[in-house]
Amino acid sequence: MQSNNNSNIVRGFIEEVLNQGKIDAAGEFFWEDMVEQVPFPGQGPGLAGLKDVLRDLRAAFPDMHWTIQEQIAEDDKVLTRFEWSGTHRGTFLGVSATDRHVTVWGMVIDRLEGGKIKETRIIMDTLGLMVQLGVISPPKA
After folding, report:
1. Is 114 helix (H, G, I), strand (E, B) or coil?
2. Out of 12-26, 70-84, 125-139, which region has the weakest mean confidence (pLDDT)?
3. pLDDT averaged over the chain?
4. What is the C-alpha to C-alpha distance for residues 18 and 108, in angstroms, rounded to an integer?
5. Backbone CA torsion sign across 76, 24, 11, 128
6. 39-64, pLDDT tens digit by residue?
7. Residue 1 pLDDT
8. Residue 22 to residues 17, 26, 65, 70, 140, Cα–Cα distance (Å)
9. How far is 68 from 70, CA to CA, in rounded Å?
10. Among 3.10.450.50, 3.90.930.60, 3.30.420.10, 3.40.50.1000, what is the CATH number of 2-132?
11. What is the C-alpha to C-alpha distance for residues 49 and 58, in angstroms, rounded to an integer?
């Protein structure tokens, strides 16, 4: 039953924080000393660092929307396969606004303790994002 509850916590974070843009509510879903196993470039530690990255992401893609494609929960871990899309309206990862619409896939593994996320590891198609933004040319066939 715990894994089902953990799944709901992750879903709540995606809906409230990522999709509704309520970045300050991230503390309801993450511990203050949470650990990002694969941090974004320049991401600071803990919940504060996560909030900074989420604010930057929301500023760069103000219409950002995340969709859960699949979710697997076991014991204290939840794996979520997702897709997010948005229009690039501000600087992100050093890339100035392009006004291009992007769709990015990825997976995140969250480990929960006491009803909140303690560790997270995101694997996202950043190369595909950069190709969609026109920063990197797609490979020639």
Report:
1. coil
2. 125-139
3. 95
4. 14
5. negative
6. 988 999 999 999 999 999 999 999 99
7. 55
8. 5, 8, 13, 23, 41
9. 6
10. 3.10.450.50
11. 14
The residue extents of the domains of the chain are: 2-132
Give the sign of the dihedral formed by CA 23, CA 35, CA 105, CA 97.
positive
Strand order in the sheet with 116-124: 30-36, 116-124, 101-113, 77-87, 65-74
Residue 40 · residue 108 · CB < 8 Å: no
Residue 136 has what DSSP assignment? S
**Hey, what are 104's tokens?**
């990015």
User: DSSP state, 105?
Assistant: E
Which candidate, 117, 129, 9, places its Cα nearest to that of 57? 129
Task: Give the list of residues 6+ apart from residue 42 with CB closer than 8 angstroms, or none.
Answer: none
For 141, the token pair is 């066939």
